[in-house]
Design brief:
By secondary structure, the chain is an alpha/beta fold. Helix content is 39%, strand content 20%. The relative contact order is 0.20.
């Protein structure tokens, strides 16, 4: 990892995605953000919003996360998000919206380190999109989860291993050494 050119991307840590299957990562994500920020590295949050008429609503008949409090960032992370480099509003799986793409390019980051919810879709899609755009994507596996359960999280990790490479799947314990 090129630590001086790396950003931590915290994906969709929102009330509507936190449940018995995913809330266990809150302390790990919080610690990761705090260590990352203490090292002087940039932190970016994403916030998913399921707009009326979205593909999620039209094709999947999924109408959740359309308004607060479901769309709000988890209370334990809200203050950290307020001090983040940016909060990317996203209407789909990826953080590579017009806002996100412009931010990543402007900042000149080469490495994007992903954590959050959900490993099998929003984290995975963002990491794969980063890979395809020439960034080095990293997924912090113990700081990511699926609100659908651990088996779905593990499926996301398996697919990520094939898409971005096993060497780019790390744990929060790996990062202190990598940040040096």
């Amino acid at each position: 990892m090129d630590a001086p050119h790396a950003a931590l991307i915290v994906i969709d840590m929102q009330n509507g995605f936190l449940n018995a299957h995913s809330q266990h990562i809150l302390p790990t994500v919080t610690g990761l953000i705090d260590r990352w920020a203490a090292a002087g590295r940039p932190v970016v949050f994403t916030q998913y919003r399921n707009h009326p008429g979205s593909p999620f609503e039209r094709l999947l008949h999924w109408t959740r996360l359309q308004q607060p409090p479901e769309t709000d960032i988890a209370p334990t992370l809200a203050q950290r998000a307020a001090h983040a480099r940016a909060v990317i509003d996203k209407p789909a799986y990826t953080c590579f919206t017009a806002q996100g793409s412009a931010l990543f390019e402007k900042e000149g980051w080469s490495d994007l380190v992903f954590c959050g919810i959900a490993t099998e879709n929003c984290v995975l899609k963002s990491a794969v999109d980063a890979f395809e755009r020439g960034y080095r994507p990293w997924i912090v596996t113990d700081a990511s989860a699926s609100h659908a359960g651990s088996a779905v999280h593990e499926a996301g990790v398996t697919v990520a291993r094939r898409f971005i490479g096993a060497d780019h799947l790390i744990t929060s314990g790996d990062l202190p050494q990598m940040l040096k």
